[in-house]
């Protein structure tokens, strides 16, 4: 913005105008006063002309010798410089005319004085003196007029100067003082971080207008900058709060996964922490096993709300997904990604923990199998050798002795066979924590022993069973399948693993064999008893009955 009317230039013009007016008024007054310096002299000379006129008349009557001298003196007085100044252009016309008429009348009187007779001069001197009186009165009025003009010029000068001073004061108040006061108020307002100050007078065509415009622009820019800084501070604060909340949630989640037993309850606690922290409607963890999947959820899903999900990856392989619903505010994406990564490690450790527990159980059972092999199996083998030697020694003896030896041989053979089955049971090896994969591992050696078709339909998630439950369930399934192969002559065996309507785990083994005649086991056989004991260890029940279409149906039901 350009300065159209500078304050300093305007003030300078006003001051110069005041000075010029003062100089003019004073100059005119001085000139007028200077022009009045010889007025008194002129009036004195004009007044002396009356006396000189009467003196000439007296001397003319008496015949004085000094008449000529006085006549010359009169002529000099009439032509005095003080009176000759009255012939100038600025002298009023009546004064100049009276002076000119006085000189002309004197020329006639001078002739009368020089040529006589004396009576003529004496008769005309009274009228001439009267003319001098009028001339003196005109000089007096002329002098008074000049004094009046001086006074008028002074008064007018003072009035104009006072007007200029008042205008200058008004100009200063409007153009300088008021805008400066507004600028000071605005600066104090800005000092208190209040940028909504009253509008400044930016339309002024002077430096203060430019300053007001610049100040307004600067105030606007500072307001924007301050708002931007406040917004950034709020954003940083929100980010820090969000980061703090995220760290707190992640810490609580890590504490939930830091349980001694990483099971379904630990995942439920983690999901509940995330749901309450992010105010979600529902959050679900879906984990995919080999053929089945298991789900852990927190909250009630709403069918009208959309689902949002993230994949759970481990070594670039999908393990499942984390899905959630929310009403208003979406959860922080970085938090959900971190929770997803934490869940992927949790699922991995869950499987590893379960597999480790199975390995421990298998190792313990293998140790028991080795102890049985090294003690009881060796003793039975020794007894069989001794029984063979006894048969040879008593060859040809009584039939009663042979019958006792045969019974003893059969009992020893059955004991040895049961011991071998028991050792095979204890030496069962499970390499996978997935229930479906573990069942496949158990059934694979049995498929090699028979031509019977063995089908598996597993709908139970591996998370539904812990390591100990899974080992007992696998042993029951293996024992039931072995019984169907050995004793029922079955052509097809179907194994179904599913959830009941009450939420319990259920494993059913059906075959199309000859069916079981009685639940009473022969002497020396304990397979059904062991299966029932395992079911009791699981906190469930074992039902063995004939199938609807024939064969045998073994149903194991136990809580998750």
Describe the structure in your own words:
The chain starts with 6 loop residues before the first helix and ends with a strand. The longest helix has 74 residues. The strands form two sheets. It has a five-stranded mixed β-sheet. Strands 2-1-4-3 form a four-stranded antiparallel β-sheet, with helices on one face. It is rod-shaped and about 235 Å long. Among the domains are: 178 residues, Four Helix Bundle (Hemerythrin (Met), subunit A) (Up-down Bundle); 131 residues, Heat Shock Protein 90. It has 560 residues and is α+β, with helices and mostly antiparallel strands. Helix 1 packs antiparallel against helix 6 and helix 9 packs antiparallel against helix 10. The protein is built from 13 helices and nine strands.
The largest pleated sheet is described as:
5 strands, mixed
> Under the CATH scheme, which architecture of the domain at 7-184 would be assigned?
Up-down Bundle
CA-based shape:
rod-shaped
CA-atom Rg in angstroms: 70 Å
Order of helices and strands: HHHHHHHHEEEEHHHEHEEHEE
Task: Count every beta strand, where a strand is a DSSP E run of 2 or more residues.
Answer: 9
Through-space gap between termini: 84 Å
Q: What class do helices, strands and sheet pairing give?
A: alpha+beta
What would CATH call the class of the domain at 7-184?
Mainly Alpha
Could you tell me the strand content as a percent range? 5-15%
What fold name goes in the CATH topology slot of the domain at 7-184? Four Helix Bundle (Hemerythrin (Met), subunit A)
**How many helices does DSSP assign?**
13
Q: Helicity, in percent?
A: 55-70%
Give average pLDDT, whole number. Answer: 78
For the largest sheet, list the strands in their spatial order.
5-6-7-9-8
Low-confidence stretches: none
């Amino acid at each position: 913005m350009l300065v159209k009317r500078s304050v300093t230039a305007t003030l300078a013009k006003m001051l110069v105008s005041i000075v010029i007016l003062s100089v003019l008024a004073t100059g005119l007054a001085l000139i007028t006063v200077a022009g009045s310096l010889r007025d008194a002299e002129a009036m004195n000379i004009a007044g002396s002309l009356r006396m000189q006129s009467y003196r000439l008349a007296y001397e003319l009557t008496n015949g004085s010798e000094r008449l000529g001298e006085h006549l010359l003196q009169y002529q000099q007085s009439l032509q005095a410089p003080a009176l000759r100044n009255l012939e100038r252009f600025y002298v009023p016309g009546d004064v100049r005319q009276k002076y000119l008429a006085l000189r002309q009348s004197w020329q006639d009187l001078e002739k009368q004085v020089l040529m006589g007779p004396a009576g003529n001069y004496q008769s005309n001197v009274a009228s001439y003196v009267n003319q001098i009186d009028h001339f003196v009165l005109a000089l007096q009025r002329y002098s008074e007029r000049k004094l009046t003009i001086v006074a008028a010029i002074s008064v007018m000068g003072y009035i104009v100067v006072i007007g200029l001073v008042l205008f200058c004061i008004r100009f200063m108040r409007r153009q300088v003082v008021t805008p400066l006061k507004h600028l000071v108020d605005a600066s104090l307002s800005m000092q208190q971080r209040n940028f909504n100050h009253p509008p400044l007078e930016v339309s002024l065509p002077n430096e203060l207008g430019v300053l007001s415009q610049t100040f307004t622009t600067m105030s606007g820019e500072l307001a924007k900058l301050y708002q931007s800084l406040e917004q950034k501070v709020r954003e940083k604060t929100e980010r820090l709060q969000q980061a703090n909340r995220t760290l707190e949630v992640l810490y609580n989640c890590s504490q939930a996964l830091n349980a001694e037993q990483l099971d379904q309850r630990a995942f439920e606690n983690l999901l509940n922490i995330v749901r309450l922290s992010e105010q979600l409607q529902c959050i679900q963890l879906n984990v995919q096993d080999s053929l089945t999947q298991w789900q852990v959820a927190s909250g009630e899903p709403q069918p009208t709300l959309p689902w949002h999900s993230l994949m759970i990856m481990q070594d670039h392989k999908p393990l499942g997904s984390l899905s959630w619903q929310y009403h208003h505010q979406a959860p922080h994406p970085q938090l959900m990604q971190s929770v997803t990564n934490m869940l992927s490690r949790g699922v991995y450790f869950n499987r590893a923990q379960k597999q480790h527990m199975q390995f421990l159980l298998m190792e313990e059972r293998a140790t028991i199998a080795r102890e049985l092999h090294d003690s009881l199996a060796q003793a039975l083998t020794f007894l069989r050798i001794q029984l063979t030697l006894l048969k040879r020694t008593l060859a040809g003896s009584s039939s009663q002795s042979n019958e006792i030896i045969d019974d003893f041989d059969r009992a020893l053979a059955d004991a040895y066979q049961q011991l071998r089955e028991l050792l095979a049971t204890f030496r069962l090896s499970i390499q996978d924590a997935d229930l479906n994969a573990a069942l496949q591992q158990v059934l694979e050696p049995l498929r090699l022993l028979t031509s019977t078709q063995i089908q598996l339909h597993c709908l139970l998630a591996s998370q539904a069973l812990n390591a100990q439950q899974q080992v007992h369930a696998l042993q029951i399934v293996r024992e039931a399948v072995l019984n169907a192969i050995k004793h029922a002559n079955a052509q097809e065996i179907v194994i179904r693993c599913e959830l009941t309507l009450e939420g319990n785990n259920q494993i059913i083994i059906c075959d199309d064999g000859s069916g079981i005649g009685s639940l009473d086991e022969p002497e020396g056989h304990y397979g059904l008893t062991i299966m029932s004991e395992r079911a009791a260890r699981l906190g469930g029940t074992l039902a063995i009955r004939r199938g609807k279409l024939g064969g045998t149906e073994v149903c194991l039901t136990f809580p998750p």
